[in-house]
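Hey everyone, long-time lurker, first post.

I ran two proteins through the pipeline my lab uses and got sequence/structure pairs for each. Pasting them in order. The first:
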Amino acid sequence: MVTIIVIAVIVIVLIAFITMYNNLVTLKNRVKNAWAQIDVQLTRRHDLIPNLVETVKGYATHERSTLEGVIAARNAAMSATTTADQIKAENALTGALRQLFALAESYPELKANTNFADLQKQLTDTEDKLSYARQSYNDCVMAFDNAIEQFPSNIIANMFSANFPRAEMYDAPVESEAAPQVKF
């Protein structure tokens, strides 16, 4: 009788272990999937920017530093290799794009250009989708990080720490939310 109880306890513990491990794998994969959704929107954003810059160039030739800043920020964002570097570069790109749109406010004929208006609308739609994807990613990161910190799944996460590293939130810096200054 004691043998049966011991075997039952071992089986229950083993099933709990397997269930918690599989839950951690599922949460880790959700984080990866959520980042992939962000990456799709970032790629679209990166593809739209050169067309937008070219359209603005025709109207704002003396605003070279703003245009060069957008291109430099885009190139930095595209070459970022780690999640942390990509988050930082994308936040810098967001600030550069805000300056570009503020610049466009100074050129009524540019604002009236249908190509510019279409590109601006597409980029705005992409930014909206990107915002949603960031929120979804952060929700997945929070669920995953909670699971690797909460008892008893933290025991399994620590046993297999190479498989379950903490994920990083995608936080927009406060300065990217501020309106850019336009000076004449």
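...and the second, right after it:
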Amino acid sequence: MLYAELKNVLNTYIKDAEIFQKSIIAVTSFPENLSQLSAGESVLFDRLDIVIFKKIMQHRGLESIKNHLYFSDYGVSKFTETEIDFSKLRYGIMPKAKYTTSEKYWVLKGAKNHLTKKWIKDHKAIALEILNSPYYYREDFSFGDLEIMERANSLNGKGPGNNTNWVTIDTNHHIAVVIEELSKIYGS
């Protein structure tokens, strides 16, 4: 449905309008709210943003404007805890990672044993889960992927990191994936 709507807007308003030299297609399919994830859970979400853009770029009826279309998304740090009252959080912010693949957003959430106050799934366990998964791109793909490998294996003095470190890791990896995909779309 989103694809059909976007195609309709481009055909109706953009395609023949000479005033548009560039059109940025900014869309995201990253979940708005991650609070439905249980502690310790790992969930895959369909990554429709790039899929829709690829379909638009392959649509024959829009060939005349393809060189004027640009992709933008909101990344994986769209969800923030800025509106959360931290004083009301019983167990604090759980460790989490948001790992982008070509077709999915993979969200991994940490877990704590509330009786012992020890982590069951911390940032290191999350890094190991990504590293040992078929989704892991490899340590030479991006700075973020190198960080995941180093944090999973405690290399180069790297600890597991914290939520701030992981925003950097997640975002860097996401940008590298988007650049790789766009280079394929544009044939570079």
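Reply from user beta_strand_b:
Welcome! Quick read of the second one: Residues 79 and 148 are 20 Å apart (CA to CA). The mean pLDDT is 87.
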